[in-house]
Amino acid sequence: MKKLFLFILPFLFLGGCSGFLYTNLPPVEFQDIDYGFPTKTVLTNPSISYIDVGKGDKTIILVHGLASNAGFWRYAIPLLSQSYRVIAVDLPGYGKSQKGAYPYTMTFYADQLNRLADELKLGKFILAGHSMGGQIGIIFSLKYPEKLEKLVLASPAGVEEFEQGEGDWLRSVMTKSFIKKTPEDGIRRNLAANFYSWEDKWEWMVEERVRMVKAKDFDEFTYTVVRCVNGMLDEPTFDKLKNISVPTLIVHGKNDGLIPNPYLNPGFTTDVFEWGAKQIPNCKSFEIDECGHMLQIEKPEEFSKAVLDFIK
What we know:
CATH topology: Rossmann fold
Shape: globular
Number of domains: 1
CATH superfamily: Alpha/Beta hydrolase fold, catalytic domain
Distance between the termini: 42 Å
CATH class: Alpha Beta
Structural class: alpha/beta
Number of helices: 11
Number of strands: 10
Helix content: 25-40%
Strand order of the largest sheet: 2-3-5-4-6-7-9-10
CATH architecture: 3-Layer(aba) Sandwich
Strand content: 15-25%
């Protein structure tokens, strides 16, 4: 049976504060979300919002994962931008970028990153993708290898294998209504599952997600998420790792609770990513102890050091 990739949406599967702290707060529109950094926008259709800080002889583009945004890099950006120019992207359909009836496939996103790089006249750059952003990075490296100096896959999707029926199950449960009806306490539990040890200092993610439900563009956001899940399933990359030609780093948390899928494919995170690193001809791997899926938030110092060491 054909294998497909499966990724659990972190906001939807069952930490810190408890109860309903933000449910009655006013909405926050996507354009008003505070990332901790100013944003710029490339206006060509679809418009792409991005953070652009730091200077150096190299540029790092950071690509977020499913259902998140450029603000999820806020702890790593200051560390990486001490040495290099850092651009953290809001993928179309997410954050402050344009939303609409776009295909939201992994190839679509790779093409949009290529367009952004051309608009900014970047030349060669380092691409770092987290989770779904990692799968996009894999596709980008295969389609545009001449644009990349190096590739960083942070807890990447697209490495683990799953059976056809398991992908079909995810398609059946992933609906706009299901996303929209997740209550605050469920959102908090789902987010906590991304961490080895949840801390209250990350409550901004819960508040942001809860208040986003009331935003005028939230229905378009849920459409994006649903299409992205299908996009990941439709473009599996585990069998394409051997074709990556650029120097690559796989960095992950040892205690990732999402990869491998604990319900459908129980096992050890280390085994999944060590296998993936062996498939890529020129690949290094780095494991962060006592760290979950959101390594760039939970262990930003260790994550950033691994990336900087790899670039150097």
